[in-house]
Amino acid sequence: MAATRDQYLEEHNGRFVEALQEWLAIPSISTLSEHQEDVYMAAEWVRNRLVYMGFPEVRTIPTNGHPLVYGEWLVDPHQPTLLFYGHYDVQPVDPVDEWQSPPFEPVIRDGNIYCRGASDDKAQILLVLAALESWIRVDGRLPVNIKILLEGEEEAGGAGVDRFVSKNAELLEADAVLICDTHMVDISQPSIINGLRGILYTEIIVSGAKTDLHSGSYGGVAPNPLHALCVLLSRLKGEDGVIHIPELHEALPEVSAAEKEFWREDPLRIEDALCREMGVEQLVGENDFPPLERLGVRPTLEVHGIRGGFTGQGAKTVIPAEAVAKVSLRLPANLVPDEVFGWLKKAVKQHIPAGYAVRLVNLHGGRGVAVNPDNSYIQAATAALSAIYGREPVFMREGGSIPIAALFDAVLGAPVVLMGFGLPDDGAHAPNEKFSLEQFHLGMRTVAEFLGKIAR
Amino acid sequence: MAATRDQYLEEHNGRFVEALQEWLAIPSISTLSEHQEDVYMAAEWVRNRLVYMGFPEVRTIPTNGHPLVYGEWLVDPHQPTLLFYGHYDVQPVDPVDEWQSPPFEPVIRDGNIYCRGASDDKAQILLVLAALESWIRVDGRLPVNIKILLEGEEEAGGAGVDRFVSKNAELLEADAVLICDTHMVDISQPSIINGLRGILYTEIIVSGAKTDLHSGSYGGVAPNPLHALCVLLSRLKGEDGVIHIPELHEALPEVSAAEKEFWREDPLRIEDALCREMGVEQLVGENDFPPLERLGVRPTLEVHGIRGGFTGQGAKTVIPAEAVAKVSLRLPANLVPDEVFGWLKKAVKQHIPAGYAVRLVNLHGGRGVAVNPDNSYIQAATAALSAIYGREPVFMREGGSIPIAALFDAVLGAPVVLMGFGLPDDGAHAPNEKFSLEQFHLGMRTVAEFLGKIAR
């Protein structure tokens, strides 16, 4: 029997890695309907894990989409209640030929485990479960009341969990929320996220002629929706990174002078790290703002893909009848995605070249979040990270969106602790996604420490 | 026994339609390697057809790509020799879900035969073979010497036939060349093509970061090659249709005042027909030039597809490492595609936003052709069309490219008769391609008539 939780986590580390490999091998891609069964199997897997750990209440909760997994272990009404949230679904894997090993065959290379979903978010869920297990097995009980809510639609907009959280404030009532779905600055520099951008994800559909046309017979007089989309997208955002939606700029939030200075000075040399990670010599975007500000609170507009016409091997001289762009905006926390959708729509109608019809689809949106660091749970996280990493964490904005964080903030009124253990080069959403096994282990120890610190 | 060729063509029309259906059912898509066997089968099919018709010499000629089919029947050294050219390969079929019936299951609806390759170019080859057959079976011999050259790479750049024609001027020596791969203005208005644009087909490949990136973690500082392509393409050609390649404009040819007037006056109301065919209320493109001039001799730049990132179902927040646009230019007859490629390359390097690498691939090119109507073969075609359709043909520019026509012109020094029987709404290269069965029959009769008229 291990005498301390650290010993327990050390002795059982291999078993946790094996469990992670087993879970990662389930290709739970939530946006592709052919993987519906896999997503369900991934939910079943983690449900069984909670049962095995001894959770007295474990439920699979159906939604219109993929199910939620809920676990609850209330140990003492005098102790605080921590709600832990994570997601067991993963991103699609294309371009699949850029993976060095098959995306759903987890392999360990150079101290990292490579698999789609490794960093985002399966390893980060399992390290929390390992931390809980160390308390259960070593101390015989959890130090605080625990609620666990795991969803399977985070990469698909999370409509199911949004509805569930909004309708079940009482069930989910908690003193704080823990989310481990972000990354640290560096393996030697722990960090806590004090802000997340929101997101609006849309499709812009441009139509020209009633059918596809031959560019020989019609080129010169025919509308080409692909070219119209190019003109439109270059007008919505220029080469200088400036977004041409006036309402957006009027609605941007004030930021503190201290944070502005941190961004300007960039003491952690994050700009250099970004260039290294991306393999580029210069950053692209709004030159008038420091890179950290652009990543943290500036709105962005990105095109993720353009469909229409012919992109196969060889030469097809088609002018397509329709072209579709997938476009998302990242938004500072105060902006409401549905409202931004209206502004985008207005700008699109204004900038579309003459002779085309255009319509927009609001695929999904989620608000950002701004964390007030002045509370005991953030302080406990700070202390736990300092104890395990031997270095004070820094507070960072995260450019990514975790819409559920904003919802917890709004519905539960509880502080959200965003303490992630990913690393910047994990490649979440990209080929060859990985998670550091050292971070897996340090993460378990940190969360175990954090649980002790929030107990009264 | 039929007493006249017209009677023969009437009596055997059903058999010709059946043969067409059989040939169309072979999915000879030359640009897709998985159809290599099908392309070969389509070549075998037409080779066997020539043997069945009685051609004394029939050969399949291998190339680096798909084979050529060559047939020769020299009946009388005192008669002229006509070289007939066609292509037995077809375009890809995507978007396949827009076809009302499967693209390679030929069906007859409302007097049209629907199948990929119907108009471009299988029916137009078979109607010529039917015309030849009517001479062979009714008159017992061909009225002139016939050479037939059919290729399987027209939709893929035709590199094999180009090399073959360049090296075999003696074998192919002819007094005139007949090509039936264009369309008439209207079923009641026959036309002969007096000019074809050339083509340059390229890929523009833009690179940003070394790997795909998450738009949450990197959006605001990351290069987005999809957006850079949009900016680039909107700079290469504006909303006004003007192409920003200065060398191109300096090299444009002079056109005759008579042709300019025909374009300006548009006596056949082709502008209205174009709007109807495309289902649009206004034409798009260079307003300073009449639509017929834009279709006939103005250079065009079209984007046919953009690859990169994610275009599937749902939402993936990826910023791709690379994006590729398929871009072609249509060129007036005097321009050399390889030279234009150099100008395009220069313009691309100049207009690509900062922070990106860009490279171009010259997929294929072919020069246009300008026909001098003042020769006896064009006059014979005019007389044949007038006799069968009861109306004088008009001379028209065709926006599409038949690079081989320019090569015949250059290598053989023989006049090229571009007498096509397609109709403007055939949908060559689009879903639901069709060919009119009435045109199939009128075409046979016209070509049989033409053969008689060119005999001495």
UniProtKB/TrEMBL annotation, chains A, B:
Residues 195-353 form the Peptidase M20 dimerisation domain. InterPro entries: Cyt/Met_Dipeptidase, Peptidase_M20, Peptidase_M20_dimer. One of its GO terms (biological process) is proteolysis. Gene3D superfamilies: 3.30.70.360, Zn peptidases. GO terms for molecular function: metal ion binding; peptidase activity. It holds the Pfam family M20_dimer. Keywords: Hydrolase, Metal-binding, Protease. NCBIfam families: PRK07907.1, PRK08201.1, PRK09104.1. This is Acetylornithine deacetylase/Succinyl-diaminopimelate desuccinylase.
